[in-house]
Amino acid sequence: MAYEHRIFIVEKTHDCYDAKVGKYFGKVLCVFNLGVVDELFNFVTKYRPTDHFIYQPGNGDEEVVEDMYGDPSTEIPVDDMFQDLQCVMTTSDTVQINLILCYETLKTFRHLGAKGRNNDIVCLHYGY
C-alpha cells in the first residue's frame, strides 16, 4: 500500500473554538487528492501540527485532526506548499493533473497573499 496525499486549502478562524476537539475550526476552501507522490512526503513531514481542525468534505460530522495513520494534520503555509509542489514538478518524471491544479490554485492564493488578502489561508496535509 502506498502513502497518498490530500491537501486541504483552509481558511483559519480564530473565533470558533471546539473544546471537545481542543482546536479552532478551519473552513475548507478546496481539496486536492494528489495520490501517490513519493517526493512530496519529505516536504510535508517537516511542518508542525496545526491548531485547527476541519470537517471532512462529504461527511460534515467527521472532524479531521489527524490523518488515516494517526499522524496529526500538518499546517503548511501557502508559499511553502507552492514551492514544495514546484520542486516536485521540476524533479518528477511524471506529473499528475491534480498536482498541476493544486499548484495553479496555490499560485492564485499567493497572488492574493501578496496583496494582504489571505493571511489566514493555509494548507493542511492529510495522509491516507
Describe what you observe in this structure:
This protein has 128 residues and is of the alpha+beta class. Helices cover 30% and strands 34% of the residues. It is built from 3 helices and 6 strands. The chain has helices at 38-44, 78-91, 97-114; strands spanning 5-18, 23-35, 52-55, 63-64, 74-77, 121-127. It has a 6-stranded mixed beta sheet. The N and C termini lie close together (10 Å).
* Secondary-structure content class: alpha+beta
The proportion of strand residues reads: 25-35%
What is the gyration radius calculated from CA atoms? 14 Å
Average pLDDT level: 87
* Multimeric state: single chain
- The rough form would be described as globular
Strand order of the largest sheet: 4-3-2-1-6-5
* H/E element order: EEHEEEHHE
Number of helices: 3
Number of strands: 6
Give me the secondary-structure topology.
Elements lengths: L4 E14 L4 E13 L2 H7 L7 E4 L7 E2 L9 E4 H14 L5 H18 L6 E7 L1
Parallel strand pairs: 2-3
Antiparallel strand pairs: 1-2, 1-6, 3-4, 5-6
Primary descriptors:
single chain, 3 helices, alpha+beta, 128 residues, 30% helix, 34% strand
